[in-house]
Amino acid sequence: MNRRRLAGLAAGAVLIPAAVSACTPDVTSARVQTVFSTTFDRLYRMQQAELGHHPPAPLLRLGANGRVIAQKPYSHTRCHKGAKGAAQTGAGDNWTCVEFFERPTGTIAEADYDVAVQTDGCLIATGPSQVVGGPQLQTQDGRTLVNPLTQFDACFPT
């Protein structure tokens, strides 16, 4: 093989990883927060239904047109990466998502999740058992079920 062809192959080998990495989704706090919040909300509703708990009554507010609007129970998510002042982008196992949510009793709970985000846009979130319960839960009729909020995974669109 001549040197020019070998140099061309070497250059191509360098460009391929760069091109592949350019195809990976941007990992930003907004994208992590959106997928985390949506997934938590769905899993929380599923958990509560399995446990036989009714969700809190919707909050009512008066709309701009004077009509009463029902809102879903309170839920708010904040996700950030690393220490204060750190760049809020990129994959890593140093993400934290804090979920504030309304319990069936009407009280607000705060759950701080450790989150690992992969370059492909998928994450694994591990929650505090003191707030979301242990790996297994007992239903009112004595059944044991897996707690979907202890640890879950989700992916944002790529």
Characterization of this structure:
The chain is an alpha+beta fold and 158 residues long. The protein has one domain (26-155). The protein has helices at residues 3-22, 29-51, 129-132; strands at residues 59-62, 68-71, 75-81, 92-102, 108-117, 122-126, 136-138, 144-146, 151-155. The strands form three sheets. The chain has a five-stranded antiparallel beta sheet with strand order 3-4-5-6-9, with helices on one face. Strands 1-2 form a two-stranded antiparallel ribbon. Strands 7-8 form a two-stranded antiparallel ribbon.
Short characterization:
This protein has 158 residues and is of the alpha+beta class.
Average pLDDT confidence is: 82
Counting DSSP H or I runs of 4 or more residues, the number of helices is 3
Oligomeric form: single chain
Give the helices and strands as they follow along the chain.
Answer: HHEEEEEEHEEE
Shape: globular
With strands numbered from the N-terminus, the spatial order across the biggest sheet is 3-4-5-6-9
Tell me roughly what share of residues is in helical segments.
Answer: 25-40%
Largest sheet: 5 strands, antiparallel
Spatial gap, N to C terminus: 39 Å
Low-confidence stretches: 3-24
Radius of gyration over all CA atoms, rounded: 22 Å
Count of domain modules: 1
Number of strands: 9
Strand content: 25-35%
Structural class: alpha+beta
